[in-house]
């Protein structure tokens, strides 16, 4: 607006190039009023509102990761396709001829031999009884010795033998000696012999029977003895020891004789 006012003033001055002196005051007054009006008008016009700036928000953003430089990768040509070799022609296997089936052989019946039962051996003959020796009459004639019994054959060997009880079979005694006394003497001899069965004979399984004849004094002392051998040296020796060491024997009853004879046997047997 200020520019327009000044143009009007210039135009007015140009119209009248040669103004009269009285007109200078009027022109100056008009120009002054125009300037004041322009100033007032310019002051009355409010300036346009300044737009408010929006608040600035600051957002922290993480830095973008730096990628490693991309290297130039040489292109690898694709592998050439290898054609598989043609399959070898497989010849079919020749037909297998079935073997002829042979019929099974007929069963063989084994012949069972007849069982032969061995007859039991005949029992051994009983040993002969010892000859009875009659007491001698009261005279210095010596008594007759007893007849020796036959020697039996030894029995077969037995594994881990155990001595059995020694059995003294009864034998006839001279008349006048009580039977209780005879049993007592024989029992002493049998017990002694049982506890001393020869070890060597046990290991070999040897058995046997040793007969004996004792000559005793009236007081029970052993005056002498005789044995009937069994044929086994160890058993004969053990029997002689038993006769000597089983005493002293009990005293004989008063029968009026100077000595008495007593017979018996020691039987060595393994279980």
TrEMBL record:
Residue spans crossing the bilayer: none
Gene Ontology BP annotations: protein transport; siderophore transport; transmembrane transport
Gene Ontology annotations for the cellular component aspect, listed alphabetically: outer membrane-bounded periplasmic space; plasma membrane
Annotated Pro residues bias: 76-108, 119-150
Main location: membrane
Keyword RNA-binding assigned: no
Name assigned to this protein: Protein TonB
Native source species: Zavarzinia compransoris
